[in-house]
Specification:
transmembrane, membrane, mainly alpha, about 210 residues, Multi_antbiot-R_MarC, UPF0056 membrane protein, 9 helices, globular
């Protein structure tokens, strides 16, 4: 149970459903309610497809390049730690990704394009999320059933994200950009602690195998 809660917290932190709400509102501005629902659904389905691909094939691709598990665990921890630092000290996920949206010519972009970028990637299926799902489904440490449970937890977080996006206007009215930023920073702090633990475990494994 403890492991499941830890995995859920990690996935919640890297996917960051609350931090995605301001990005969604910026993307969905000008669309009808029906179009906004389709936008949210397509973004979630796209994100699920991307993250499931990394669960299934991510580690195989790394191993095909002869990357040691411990090295990947250390590197993954460092990447997650840097990702966490951007959540804590950066402008904040909503502002950063709304700036990416502002760089696009919205008049020539369809709802589908907006659902893919910046909503699905990099807001929901972020680089940190891609790295996290690979680490949480390591073939050498987890059985297929355990990996399936992790995939199920990821899909649960995405389902919650979808529900939150459907109520994005109401939620944003309650917490505002500042509230979303605070929550994102707290999640970043938790993720930094998890990433540090991953680095230490990777170093321990490396030296244990070297002896």
């Amino acid at each position: 149970m403890h492991d499941l809660i830890q995995q859920f917290i990690i996935l919640w932190a890297v996917i960051d459903p609350i931090g995605t709400i301001p990005v969604f509102l910026a993307v969905a501005a000008g669309y009808t309610a029906v179009q906004q629902r389709k936008l949210a659904l397509f973004a979630i389905v796209t994100s699920a497809g991307v993250l499931l691909f990394f669960i299934i094939a991510g580690q195989l691709l790394l191993e095909s390049m002869n990357i040691a598990l411990s090295a990947f665990q250390i590197a993954g921890g460092i990447v997650l730690f840097l990702f966490a630092l951007t959540m804590i000290f950066g402008e904040g996920k909503p502002q950063e990704e709304k700036e990416l949206l502002a760089q696009q010519d919205t008049r020539s972009s369809s709802p589908v394009n907006h659902a893919i970028f910046p909503l699905a990637i990099p807001s929901i299926a972020s680089p940190g999320a891609m790295m996290a799902v690979v680490m949480l489904t390591d073939n050498h440490r987890f059985e297929v059933m355990e990996q399936g449970i992790t995939a199920g937890l990821m899909l649960l977080v995405l389902l919650i994200t979808f529900i939150l996006l459907l109520g994005a206007t109401f939620i944003h009215r309650l917490i505002g950009d500042a509230g979303a930023s605070v929550i994102s920073r707290v999640m970043g702090l938790i993720l930094a602690a998890v990433a540090t633990n991953s680095i230490l475990e990777g170093i321990k494994t490396y030296f244990a195998l070297s002896v």
